[in-house]
């Protein structure tokens, strides 16, 4: 891949990136969230196309970027999020990816096809069980078997171990080594530096869409050096990072009150015995590479899920679970990571969305209600046709401002902000950041999940890193970017 560039609107994902992978090697591709790793390999797999640059596979230039064509050239990709059909068995999922003349294969033939590949590569799997009933590790192995079934010469694995326990991750890495020994090329996107040193030959690091380190032997580096490259503390020969798109948000002086939120020994999903305490008036930033328990913690704090172990309390009382109205009454404001899926009802009006969980059982007349809510929209600079407009018509920034207008109404005791500025333009991001900081200044305990360290450095009083479901830190100002980057890569707890 030479001079590859890709932009999405005004967001530059890749800028003149060179990337080379050789047969017989396992090549690690590193970078923090948003560095451009997934965009790069999606182009290589034909799932996206570059705006500029060239790609060749085994000496043949790629003329048409289509998944079918790249798969025919020997490229297969196991994506970070599973693409299995949950109601189909392992064999049926294989047949769906590579049909052999029948829409639905015979059960015996499908089972034998899975078992043949599973035996060859040591990837144990229950062939007759629907994919949705398989364990996470089995689903990951099935995704890999689907790629191997296509006899891929170049195999791309996007965060393959993010959802696996250590033993399963080690087994997967051993399979990758075996594939390399067979002469295949393997690319692994990972956030676990330990895997780089135990299972990879060369390493490339992307930083904000540019190459910070290009394909050098892993043995020439150490964990701390790679971590510095990932998060921007680069040596002199690395390309300079572009300026942040969002200027720092100066946090006002906040008088901290007594502890408000306490999380004791909580386990669920990826979380294992997680502890956290947040005082009123304090913002605790949650950093870490996606897939390390952030989604589980978000769901627990928002009352969307119950812990399998441990307790969560707000001002000494248990956090409500499973009842949004109780959450609202308890003073918990929730800004979810997916605003369209978990915060807004697109077909409903803006006025209806502002009242979700807070409206009266007997609503006032529409005109009167719209007249009351119109100033709220103006105060939050939600640019729209008016309270009667549908939420689905809003842009990303206006949709997020609508969510905050509802969630920060009154004086919340706890604010759960999951990537609140993701995908927003600088002005909207700054406004939203300032409003959350203001809520903390009014006495709320804030847990801020962030994808960008620069943003967390600007707003957080402390930063906790989630790595493999455990907490590292807390880190306090002045923040040590290299130490935090090392923790994000699993360097210590």
Automatic annotation (TrEMBL):
InterPro entries: AAA+_ATPase (IPR003593), ABC_carbohydrate_import_ATPase (IPR050107), ABC_transporter-like_ATP-bd (IPR003439), ABC_transporter-like_CS (IPR017871), P-loop_NTPase (IPR027417). GO terms for molecular function: ATP binding; ATP hydrolysis activity. The keyword Mitochondrion does not apply. Keywords: ATP-binding, Nucleotide-binding, Repeat, Transport. Pfam families: ABC_tran (PF00005). Residues 1-233, 253-493 form the ABC transporter domain. This is Sugar ABC transporter. It comes from Phytohabitans rumicis. The lineage of its organism: Bacteria, Bacillati, Actinomycetota, Actinomycetes, Micromonosporales.
């Amino acid at each position: 891949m030479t001079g590859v560039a890709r932009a999405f609107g005004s967001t530059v994902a890749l800028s003149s990136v060179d990337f080379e992978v050789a047969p017989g090697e396992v090549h690690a591709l590193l970078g923090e969230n948003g560095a451009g790793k997934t965009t790069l390999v999606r182009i290589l797999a034909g799932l996206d196309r570059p705006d500029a640059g060239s790609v060749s596979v085994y000496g043949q230039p790629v003329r048409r970027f289509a998944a079918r064509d790249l798969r025919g050239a020997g490229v297969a990709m196991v994506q970070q999020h599973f693409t299995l059909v949950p109601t189909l068995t392992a064999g049926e999922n294989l047949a769906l990816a590579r049909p052999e003349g029948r829409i639905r294969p015979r059960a015996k033939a499908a089972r034998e096809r899975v078992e043949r590949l599973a035996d060859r590569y040591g990837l144990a799997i229950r062939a007759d069980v629907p994919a949705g009933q398989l364990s996470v590790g089995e689903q990951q192995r099935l995704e890999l078997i689907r790629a191997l079934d296509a006899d891929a010469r170049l195999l791309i694995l996007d965060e393959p171990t993010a959802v696996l326990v250590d033993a399963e991750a080690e087994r997967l890495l051993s399979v990758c080594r075996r594939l390399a020994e067979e002469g295949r090329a393997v690319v692994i996107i990972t956030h676990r530096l330990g895997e780089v040193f135990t299972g990879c030959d060369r390493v490339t690091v992307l930083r904000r869409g540019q190459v910070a380190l290009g394909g050098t032997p892993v043995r020439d580096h150490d964990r701390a050096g790679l971590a510095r490259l990932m998060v921007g503390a680069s040596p002199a020969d690395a390309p300079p990072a572009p300026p942040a798109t969002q200027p720092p948000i100066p946090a006002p002086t906040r008088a901290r009150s007594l502890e408000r939120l306490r999380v004791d020994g909580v386990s669920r999903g990826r979380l294992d015995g997680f502890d956290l305490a947040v005082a009123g008036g304090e913002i605790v930033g949650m950093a870490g590479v996606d897939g390390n328990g952030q989604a589980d913690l978000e769901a627990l704090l928002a009352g969307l899920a119950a812990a399998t172990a441990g307790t969560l309390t707000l001002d000494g009382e248990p956090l409500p679970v499973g009842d949004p109205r109780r959450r609202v009454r308890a003073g918990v404001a929730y800004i979810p990571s997916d605003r369209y899926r978990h915060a807004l009802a697109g077909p409903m009006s803006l006025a209806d969305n502002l009242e979700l969980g807070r409206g009266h059982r007997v609503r006032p007349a529409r005109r009167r209600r719209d007249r009351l809510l119109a100033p709220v929209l103006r105060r939050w600079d939600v640019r729209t046709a008016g309270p009667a407009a549908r939420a689905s018509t809003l842009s990303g920034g206006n949709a997020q401002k609508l969510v905050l207008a509802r969630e920060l109404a009154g004086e919340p005791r706890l604010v759960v902000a999951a990537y609140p500025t993701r995908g927003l333009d600088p002005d909207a991001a700054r406004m939203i950041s300032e409003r959350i900081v203001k809520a903390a200044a009014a006495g709320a305990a804030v847990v801020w999940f962030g994808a960008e360290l620069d943003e967390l450095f600007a707003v957080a009083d402390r930063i906790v890193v989630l790595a493999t479901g455990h907490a590292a830190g807390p880190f306090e100002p002045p923040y040590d970017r290299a130490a935090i980057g090392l923790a994000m890569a699993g360097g210590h707890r």
